[in-house]
From TrEMBL:
Protein name: PBSX family phage terminase large subunit
Pfam families, A to Z: Terminase_3 (PF04466), Terminase_3C (PF17288)
UniProt xrefs under Gene3D superfamilies: 3.30.420.280, P-loop containing nucleotide triphosphate hydrolases
Coiled coil: none
The Phage terminase large subunit N-terminal domain, residue ranges: 29-255
Tree of life domain: Bacteria
């Protein structure tokens, strides 16, 4: 491969707030905290800058880390490749950059090598041992840094302990970039990098770093992205979010640190609901297995973006056989076909029900942040509960976030007491989330 001496962007993609990174004399601090709202081009702009450095300079050895390796391909590797192949032009050849000629991409080892000699590697931290043996890293990027713990950051730094070469344009100190949405005020990142006081005099709050000699911070929102063409341009949508989910509005639209109230769901109503399925756009069912605590089953309706809790089974001391008897009584003609999303922690119970004729039952999908993501999805909606569903009614009235024992502040973990109906309802909404109209972006 022949080193590229001069490049240009196909179009002027650089956002004004990030132009300083592209200057020849730009040298980052030890810690570079890039955060803010959704659609603010945080990751895009950082990739754009680092790709340019790698193309034109020979000494960049970059390690991009996500908490979970399974998220690397779509959220990290592909955006890098897209930037390399679609945004830049080799001036001398007057063509885009091509794999094999201007760079190589090792899909197995997950790294990109540039003709200049620079390299970028992609790793997941779910197996920290894989970070061993990586020498000479001089730039570390923790993408979605809120997924990591403070000890993760310190451990990664200890494992790397690399010294950049003498001729590196950024000096001989490891440079660390952290990108994230500031999801919760109680998060360790805020106390680690920022002073406790926050200037809340304007809608977009201002934070001050603890040590400006070692830490640089940049906060941006969708308003700073001149190429943004997304949902937050809709003032009606922003106002609706501001009323229904003010914490999410503050985080996603304004890039502010999220502050949790006591109750997890604040927008719910108890009433006599229409039971005729034709009234709703779709119907789904959720099931949380229990014994010492209550088994919770709920029939859910979806209409105009909101969720309706129509029927309920809520009893303790039920075996799987008991559950099937109850559901056959409730749905004598359709029990074998209704789509039930059940707790995937009980695969043997799900299989037993399937063999007994409940062919529509399936395990719900759970991931690293599925509980929080499911809660946030429901917080964007009004939850209507039929007055006959006393289990759901009683639980939602007391469903709260945990408190940090040290600070007394709410943290993003539900109290695990009397949450069976809340889990059942969250499982049941999985079917609705597959409807594009009801999806919510969180990035």
């Amino acid at each position: 491969m022949k080193k590229i001496k001069k490049i240009r962007l196909k179009r002027p993609y650089v956002n004004p707030k990030y132009k300083f990174m592209f200057k020849k004399d730009y040298i980052p601090q030890k810690y570079n905290v890039i955060y803010g709202g959704t659609g603010s081009s945080k990751s895009f702009s950082l990739i754009e800058m680092l790709v340019e450095k790698c193309i034109l300079h020979s000494t960049f050895d970059i390690l991009v880390v996500r908490k979970y390796a399974t998220t690397l391909k779509d959220t990290v590797e592909m955006p890098w490749l897209d930037m390399i192949t679609k945004r830049y032009i080799n001036v001398l050849s007057n063509s885009g950059l091509k794999e094999g000629r201007d760079f190589t991409y090792n899909r197995t080892l997950k790294h990109i090598k540039f003709a200049s000699g620079s390299i970028v590697r992609f790793k997941g931290y779910d197996n920290p041992e894989k970070l061993k043996g990586i020498d000479n890293v001089n730039v570390l990027w923790l993408e979605e840094c809120t997924d990591f713990t403070q000890s993760d950051l310190e451990d990664i730094q200890d494992r790397l302990r690399a010294t950049p070469p003498p001729n590196h344009i950024w000096g001989r100190e490891l440079k660390i970039f952290c990108t994230f949405n500031p999801i919760f005020k109680s998060h360790w990142i805020r106390t680690y990098f920022f002073k406790d006081e926050i200037d809340m005099s304007e809608e977009i709050h201002k934070d001050t770093v603890i040590d400006s000699a070692t830490t640089f911070s940049l906060k941006t929102t969708w308003r700073d992205n001149k190429f943004y063409n997304g949902q937050y341009q809709d003032e009606k949508l922003r106002n609706k979010m501001k009323i229904k989910n003010p914490r999410k509005y503050g985080v996603q639209c304004n890039g502010n640190w999220g502050v949790l109230g006591e109750l997890i769901y604040e927008h719910y109503k108890v009433d006599i609901l229409e039971k005729d399925h034709s009234y709703y756009e779709d119907i789904s069912y959720g099931l949380d297995f229990g014994f010492d605590h209550s088994t919770a089953f709920h029939e859910l309706g979806k209409k105009d973006g909101d969720i309706y809790v129509l029927r309920e089974l809520y009893k303790p001391k039920l075996t799987v056989t008991d559950i099937m008897k109850e559901l056959k009584r409730m749905y004598p003609n359709t029990y074998n076909s209704i789509r039930i999303y059940a707790d995937n922690a009980r695969p043997e119970a799900i299989e037993e029900m399937r063999r007994a004729g409940f062919s529509g039952i399936r395990a719900c999908t759970k991931g690293a942040n599925s509980v929080l993501e499911g809660i946030e999805w429901l917080q964007d909606r009004t939850i209507y509960i039929d007055e006959s569903c006393t289990g759901a009614k009683n639980e939602i009235e007391s469903y709260q976030w945990q408190k940090d024992k040290r600070t007394g502040e709410r943290i993003p973990k539900p109290i695990k007491v009397n949450d069976d109906a809340m889990d059942s309802i969250r499982y049941g909404t999985e079917k609705f989330k597959k409807d594009k109209k009801l999806r919510v972006a969180w990035c």
